[in-house]
Amino acid sequence: MKKAYYLAVLTLALLLSSCAKQQYYKIMGNTQGTTYHIIYRYSRMLKPQVDSILHAIDMSLSTYNPNSIISKVNRNEPVKLDDHFIKVFRKSIEISEATDGAFDVTVGPLVDAYGFGPGNRINHLTKKQIDSILQFVGYHKVHLEGRKLIKDDPRIQLDFNAIAQGYTVDVIAKYFDRLGITDYMVEVGGELLAKGRNEFGEAWRIGIDKPIEGSTEATREIQLIVGFKGAKKAISTSGNYRRFYVENGIKYTHTINPHTGYPVKSNLLSASILSNNCTDADGYATACMVMGLDKAIELVNRKANLNAFFIYTDKEGKYRFYFTPEFKKFVIEE
Length: 334
Prior knowledge:
By secondary structure, this protein is of the alpha+beta class. The protein has a domain at about 190-334: T-fold, CATH 3.10.520. Helices cover about 35% and strands about 25% of the residues. It has helices at about 1-20, 45-60, 70-75, 85-100, 110-115, 125-135, 165-180, 280-290, 295-300, 325-330; strands spanning about 25-30, 35-40, 140-145, 150, 185-190, 190-195, 205-210, 220-230, 230-240, 245, 250-255, 270-275, 305-315, 320-325, 330-334. A hairpin with a 5-residue loop joins strand 13 (about 305-315) and strand 14 (about 320-325). Helix 2 (about 45-60) packs antiparallel against helix 7, helix 4 (about 85-100) runs parallel beside helix 8 and helix 7 runs antiparallel to helix 8. It starts with a helix and ends with a strand.
């Protein structure tokens, strides 16, 4: 009895000692042509491990990396697909089907043509050129056979940039979960997932920007703040107020409609999607911007795992807001 008691006391002391050594670490860096910021509570620094994960995903999904799997697929080189590629491709097709093709991983050649991708921009793009590119756009024109991607036409190009960052966030979050980390915030390129509490024992606070045209990280203004505490919650915001250019008086935004081949023109300025995983949040936020306000509202009310905050303009050009009821519960400051 006495021996068992001392063993129990020793075990408890070791557990308390282990917990006492834990602290909040902050790591950051560059990946996928953007930045990442991570905060977590643990017993040691994990930057080398996180950077290893980021490198593996970059080698699979980045069109900016000429040696990545997706780059080789786009060049029609023989390559065995890895798990990252297969998971993101399958999720992309799922979102494409759920949004009637508003989200489409084959839109890459159009993104390049307008100057928003790694490829060469076509100056003064004509309707004839757009129609020519559209022949090779359509998620139903690609499919998997085992670990090989089959294209209906070898000129089809894939682009995971509208979903890869959200997927990356989920991969890192799952790695933290396996380590038993209960408090963390992972952000890659603005796509974010949080769990537990922040270093002050409070909810993680996430700001959603005002969709001010031409604003930068330095000049951004916050529209509202949401708070996450406890279970994992992911959020992604997509908008056309930063990445755009004007040519001959015409504004070209980075969100391209896969059906028409033209940049989206809509009164929907910003779509923030709340979900239990960041892959869905990222992909569906992009799809909402393509679909426009009415269809986006219909989508988020149909999908049980999605909640949304939309910023749009009325006929007078004034900001208006749409919340799903569940999203509104997370707003802590307006």
